[in-house]
Specification:
Blueprint lengths: L13 E5 L2 H4 L12 H4 L2 H4 L2 H6 L1 H16 L5 H11 L4 E5 L5 H5 L4 E3 L2 E8 L5 E3 L16 E5 L8 H12 L3 E5 L11 H7 L3 E5 L12 E3 L3 H8 L4
Parallel strand pairs: 1-2, 1-7, 2-3, 7-8, 8-9
Antiparallel strand pairs: 4-5, 4-6
Helix pairs in contact: 6-10
This protein binds adenosine-5-diphosphoribose.
């Protein structure tokens, strides 16, 4: 089967399963590989609960750096094609590991953020939740006085059960899953697309590089996200 057998318009329920490579063409750095965030910043000092408890100001310095960088980025043509496919009623769900909010900015509504959001906040003292796109967020404190905690799934955190349930419902009921721009090394996200396959869906991987999961896909396209999406979303 060739790429023409995987066109979005010929399927009834499509899941776009996205990772950092989806936003690379918007200028958001990926996590691994050349120029990756975890090459410059040691996640044990900046992106885990023990680091936040030991030095919240340092963790916020890193997250404000990311807010500034990501806040200046715009959705790319790939994000826009996915949003257009949803608007054209192709039963589209986005399941993303990204915290940048670019799918929503492009117009996608049906988005499940497995790893939380750079723009959401929660207070671990009083339980309050908030959203802010300030970049930087100058005073990252809740009105109760405690530090805001970025509502991001950091290393060692559990994923939100409700988000997993919603994502899995879409995954096991789709007939086409298109994975885009993920290195497929972070669990449990890495294995989620395999449930679509088990349930009978076709699987496409879009990534210039092979991943540890490539062998589980029906079709691997070694192209950039926007280039391949232009072909998969033909006629939408
Ligand atoms: N188009 C498609 N894929 C691309 C592009 C592009 N233009 N540019 C890079 N890629 C691919 C890379 O080849 C790589 O396989 O995107 C992938 C990015 O991998 P990671 O940086 O590991 O990002 P991701 O898989 O989303 O990381 C998973 O790890 O620490 C975290 O929580 C963070 O959600 C993140 C998780």
């Amino acid at each position: 089967m060739g790429l023409s057998d995987y066109l979005v318009r010929n399927h009834r329920r499509v899941v776009f399963f996205t990772g950092a490579g989806m936003s690379a063409e918007s200028g958001v750095p990926t996590y691994r590989g050349k120029g990756g965030i975890w090459k410059q910043y040691d996640y044990e000092s900046y992106a885990c609960q023990p680091a936040f408890e030991a030095d919240p100001a340092r963790v916020w310095e890193f997250h404000n750096y990311r807010r500034k960088l990501v806040g200046a980025c715009k959705p790319n043509p790939g994000h826009e094609l996915i949003a257009r496919a949803e608007a054209a009623s192709h039963g589209v769900t986005v399941v993303t590991q990204n915290i940048d909010g670019l799918h929503q900015l492009a117009g996608s509504r049906n988005v499940h953020e497995l790893h939380g959001s750079l723009w959401r906040l929660r207070c671990e003292k009083c339980g309050r939740r908030a959203e802010s796109r300030d970049a930087p967020l100058l005073d990252p404190h809740c009105s109760c006085g405690a530090w805001w905690r970025p509502a991001i799934v950091w290393f060692g955190d559990a994923l939100d059960g409700e988000v997993i349930d919603a994502a899995m419902r879409a995954i096991v009921s789709c007939d086409l899953l298109i994975s885009i721009g993920t290195s497929a090394v972070v669990y449990p996200a890495a294995q989620m697309p395999l449930y679509a396959r088990k349930a009978g869906a076709k699987l496409v991987e879009v990534n210039p590089e092979p991943t540890p999961m490539s062998a589980s896909y029906d079709l691997c396209v070694r192209e950039s996200a926007s280039e391949c999406l232009a072909r998969l979303c033909e006629g939408i």
